[in-house]
Amino acid sequence: MGWTETTRRRYCRAGQRDANVLTDKEWELIEPFLPGTKATGRPRTTELRAVVDALLYIAWTGCQWRDLPDRFPPVSMVQRYFYAWRDNGLWKAINFHLVAAARLALGREASPSAGVIDSQSAKTADVAGLRGYDAGKKPQAPYHYRHRGHLVGLTVHTADIQDRDGAVGVIASIRRLYPWLRSYCGIVDSRISLVWWEASATQRGSAGD
């Protein structure tokens, strides 16, 4: 989607302190998926919208947890919600419904039938953990796979795993959410070669050079 006068007005953040904060319309889309108020126990004192804005701020700026500005909820609170929502699949559920809604708005089927797999390497901090070296792209870093257009799946792993092997993992991770997504196209082995993976992820054939 290109930038037009309509889209510029829709995503304008004029008058807001941070460029990443949710607009009222954006919040209306994801609020129904967030946990409601519990009938028992202590009442919630943290606004979930502020938590989401804090997470978007971290994603937008790339800052560390401890550098989260004081205008957001406490870091420990934001972390607790983030890890809880990650572990219970909330982020995947929100993304799944947003992708379906966006496709339906364009007059297409809710679930895609084909997608593009891409990979990108990035340097990691000098901390303990699994690491790998990608001889083709040089940096010692994890890869992530993404489908251009609407993101439907992402996997992070060490850079020494070849694209053709990493693709199997990302396909397996989205199979239940997107059963009609049967074919995947991508460039592998740092060569200009289009490759198709079938949904079974067991066969691979060159589609062109």
Task: Describe the structure in your own words.
A hairpin with a 6-residue loop joins strand 4 and strand 5. The chain has 2 domains: 19-35 and 44-88, no CATH class; 112-208, no CATH class. It contains 6 helices and 6 strands; from the N terminus they run αααααβββαβββ. It has 209 residues and is an alpha+beta fold. Helix 3 (48-61) packs across helix 4. The chain is globular and about 45 Å long. The longest helix has 16 residues, at 90-105. Residues 138-148, 190-195 and 200-209 have low confidence and may be disordered. The protein has a 6-stranded mixed β-sheet with strand order 3-2-1-4-5-6, with helices on one face.
In short:
The chain has 209 residues and is of the alpha+beta class. It has six helices and six strands, in the order H-H-H-H-H-E-E-E-H-E-E-E. The longest helix has 16 residues, at 90-105.
Chain-wise SSE layout:
Elements: H1 5-10, H2 24-30, H3 48-61, H4 75-87, H5 90-105, E1 114-121, E2 142-146, E3 156-158, H6 163-174, E4 183-187, E5 194-198, E6 204-208
Parallel strand pairs: 1-4
Antiparallel strand pairs: 1-2, 2-3, 4-5, 5-6
Helix pairs in contact: 3-4
Total strands: 6
User: What separation lies between the terminal Cα atoms?
Assistant: 28 Å
Q: Biggest sheet: strands side by side, in what order?
A: 3-2-1-4-5-6
Helix amount: 25-40%
Q: What share of the residues does DSSP label as strand, in percent?
A: 5-15%
Throw out a few tags for this protein.
six-stranded mixed β-sheet, 33% helix, 2 domains, single chain, 209 residues, 6 helices, alpha+beta, disordered C terminus
